[in-house]
Amino acid sequence: MTPGLTIRGLEKSFHTIPVLKSLDLDVAPGEILGLVGENGAGKSTLMNILGGHLHADAGAIMLDGEPYRPDSARAALRCGLGLVHQELELFPNLSVAENLLIAGFPTFAGCIRRRQVEQTAARLLQQVGLECSPRTLLGHLSAGQQQLVEFARVLATDFRILLLDEPTTSLSRRETDTLYATIHALAQAGKGIILISHQINDVLTHCDRISILRDGRLVHQGPTQEIDVEMVIQKMTGRTVTQLFPQRDRSKGAHVGRVLLDVQSISQPRTLSSISFQIHSGEIVGLFGLVGAGRSELARVLLGLDRCKEGRVLLEGQPVTGSPRRRIQQGLGLVTESRRADGILAEMSVSENLSLVALPRFCRPVTGSIRQPELDRVVSITRQQLSLQSRLNDQQPMVTLSGGNQQKIVVGKWLINDPKVLILDEPSRGIDVGAKADLYQLVQRFADQGRGVLAISSDLEELIGICDRILVMSLGHLTGEFQADEFQRELIAKAAFAMQLSEPSHRSRK
User: Fold this and answer.
1) 261 exposure class (CB count in 10 Å sphere: 0-12, 13-18, 19+)
2) Are residues 61 and 49 in the same domain?
């Protein structure tokens, strides 16, 4: 079959550093192509070139036999290429329906047909399995729900080729399955699809072929049936990752030290209902739940980003109060769910972002000037701990980095500040398998120093692999607690659905 999309000899450099090197790629109509590689391998750069956000330095792209060189996202869409970004491009101040049809509202006599907008939006939301009103303000949705809106938004367009950049990073397993079912239906309808994902098992399960990038070059391309997970990792990293999760001694049980964080009956209208738990010194506690369970909302309350109606938080027996700045000074830290929205300063350098949280610690008390040599030394040590690429320049703007390298720096800026309890909200989002192994080692070393960790993740395997204890939330309620020797996927998943399963009885009583 003639490829719908053909790429030949594509090249791109940033600051004289080559990111794509003579790349060749084909995608046929009706085919799902998996594209994998380490952070910085060039995947997102390729997507941005195809999506009209960047121009290639050399090479040719053909779409259905015609030269393809879009100069904007709108031009790419007009040519029939849909793109779902890893970093969402939505409008939080508009409704879900308005975001879905922003590319072209149905009109009559110059007026938007609101009823048709909402009907179309409801159909698209049903297609991706998202249960919410089309009139809901987008900013009121969680990151995972917004991710589904981003996917649904592209379904409203007339695309021939669909590019998906990490579309499942904040989704539950059920939502992920629904999304993949939709992807297969699109392929059966003749759409060509490129799927970028660090979930290698998903790529091997759902894709027809796999292309592997390393350092901007195509190092492997072939049917998914001819390759396994170990071979993918070896080809994309150039090394063998023998163990993703670090060995952890859990023989002493979860309560390995004194109580660091004591959360007592935290409540917030329509979001959190009397949440209580403790985190001990040296303990890694996981927090699992479906999208909309209230996990990220709880993290924001703990750091003081949102106010709670009832309850209190104690850190080493002392009340945690005041602004986020005050709580950070008291010893809390939070790696937020969305690095683009509130995790990085995109135009500032790698060094500036790494030092962002801890900067007050390196200021002279009288003059306020920065002890730059000491700060530079700590930043350099942290870079080595994070295993950042050696070619990465300290003065390079964050916006030029891959999503995975950005995420490493977001984690690193908190490690420099050395909090007593670190909250990690989807910490491995957008990170390749090699970087995940490095991150998990960092988290374990942090806990081994007597610190506490609250790891929020939609990836149950991740929590089982790194945690001493797992808490489960469902619709704002704490519905389960499991020690390491009690980790059973079915029971944990059942606890995540607990409040939804009880919802019909609540409604009947009303």
Assistant:
1) buried
2) yes
Q: What are the tokens at 422?
A: 């670190």
Q: Is residue 394 one of the residues assigned to a domain?
A: yes
Range of the domain at 274: 245-331+419-510
Q: What is the pLDDT of residue 390?
A: 55
Pairing of strands 161-165, 192-196: parallel
Same domain for 323 and 461?
Answer: yes
Residue 88 has pLDDT above 50, yes or no: yes
Pairing state of beta strands 318-319 and 310-315?
Answer: antiparallel
The C-alpha atoms of residue 27 and residue 35 are separated, in whole angstroms, by 11
| Tokens 């995975």, located at residue | 404
b/e sequence 178-208, b meaning 16+ C-beta within 10 Å: bbbebbeebbeeebbbbbbbbbbebbbebbb
Asked if residue 95 and residue 41 are part of one domain, the reply reads yes
How many domains would you assign to the chain? Answer: 3
- Say what percent of the chain tops pLDDT 70: 93
Rounded average pLDDT over 211-236: 88
Q: How far apart are the first and last CA of the chain?
A: 58
Residue 400 makes CB contacts below 8 A (sequence gap 6+) with 14, 15
Q: What backbone torsions phi and psi does residue 143 show, to the nearest 5 degrees? A: -60, -40
pTM of the model: 0.67
Spatial distance between the Cα atoms of 164 and 166, rounded to a whole number of angstroms: 6
CA distance 9 to 226: 25
Domain of 204: which CATH number? 3.40.50.300
| Tokens linked to 103 | 């590319």
Tens digits of residue pLDDT in 138-194:
888 877 788 889 888 888 888 899 999 888 877 777 778 888 999 999 999 999 999
The model's pLDDT over 455-504, given as tens digits with 9 standing for 90+, comes to 998 888 889 999 999 999 988 999 999 998 889 888 998 898 887 655 54
- Whole-angstrom Cα distance, residue 85 to residue 90? 10
Same domain, yes or no: 88 and 229: yes
Is residue 254 over pLDDT 50?
Answer: no
